Amino acid sequence: MIVTEKSPEEVKSLRFVLHKHQAKSLHYDLRLERDGVLKCWALPKGVPMVSKEKRLAIESGDHKTDLLYFSGIIPKGQYGAGEINIDDSGKYEILLWSDIKIEFILKGDKYKGRYILVRFQKAGPKTWLLMKAD
Questions:
Q1: Range name among 35-44, 67-76, 85-94, 102-111 with the lowest pLDDT average
Q2: DSSP secondary-structure letter at 79?
Q3: Is the per-residue pLDDT at 2 higher than 50?
Q4: Which residues pair with 115 in a beta bridge?
Q5: For labelling alongside 104, which of 2, 5, 23, 52 has CA 20 to 30 A away?
């Protein structure tokens, strides 16, 4: 298990974006800045709003940080084709980052508070569960 801690200066600079993405089906993309890229998860049913509610999160690979500010249309034939809009964005703080659990605090306009991503090993290597913590 790898646990990473950031200095206070690094924590302040961490950004996130939550995209509403109308591709093959409507879903949300959670993107957390880390090590110069955006770590990303597709959320078929969005972000949980109440404590202990669990939502499926499919790890979708790293993306460039340019996506932090992107809204628009991804053309047909390209990965993720469809309309993408920012649902929320802001800063976030890492509490724990390991291979099986990521705990963080979102500091957006719409989404605030502590969230936990836990790897859902039985469902496959890229499958996680996202929960809102107390």
A1: 67-76
A2: T
A3: no
A4: 104, 132
A5: 23
DSSP state of 99: S
The first and second tokens of residue 37, run together, are: 């890229």
Minimal CA–CA distance to 101: which of 123, 128, 122? 128
Supply the pLDDT for residue 128: 97
Report phi then psi at 67, rounded to 5. -65, -15
Which residue has 């690979």 as its token pair?
61
Q: Rounded to an integer, what distance in angstroms lies between the CA atom of residue 10 and that of residue 127?
A: 28
Q: How many CA atoms lie within 13 A of 71 on its CB side?
A: 9
* pLDDT for position 1: 45
- d(C-alpha 11, C-alpha 111), whole Å: 18
Percent of the chain with pLDDT over 90: 69
In whole angstroms, what separates CA 13 from the centre of its chain? Answer: 16
